[in-house]
Amino acid sequence: MKVKMNVQTAYHGELLRAGKEYEIDEETAKRWIASKLAEEVQEISEDE
After folding, report:
1. Residue 36 backbone zone (phi > 0: left; psi -120 to 50: alpha; other: beta)
2. Are 37 and 9 within 8 A, CB to CB?
3. Which superkingdom heads the taxonomic lineage of this protein's source (predicted)?
4. Which of 23, 27, 28, 32 has the highest CB neighbour count under 10 A?
5. CA separation for the pair 20, 17 (Å, rounded)
6. Which range of residues forms the domain containing residue 10?
């Protein structure tokens, strides 16, 4: 799942910076979104 970080954090030894987008596993993404650490990035389909 793609998320945009609201805060800076470390994840699996990688530094994730606030304001940037990252691909992370769905379970972690949902926890972060619920905790306001990140927000979901809505991907636009190019098929339409």
Report:
1. left
2. yes
3. Bacteria
4. 32
5. 6
6. 2-40
At 43 the pLDDT is 77
Q: Which residue in this structure is represented by tokens 């972060």? A: 32
Q: With respect to residue 36, please indicate whether it lies within any of the assigned structural domains.
A: yes
With vertex at residue 21, the alpha carbon angle to CA 18 and CA 44, rounded to the nearest 5 degrees, is 140
What's the one-letter identity of residue 32?
Answer: W
Give the count of domains, the chain. 1
Q: Could you tell me how far CA 24 lies from the centroid of its own chain?
A: 6
pLDDT tens for residues 1-48? 999 999 999 999 999 999 999 999 999 999 999 999 999 999 776 765
Beta strands 38-40 and 14-16 are unpaired
Find the helix or strand (DSSP H, E) in which 40 lies: strand 38-40
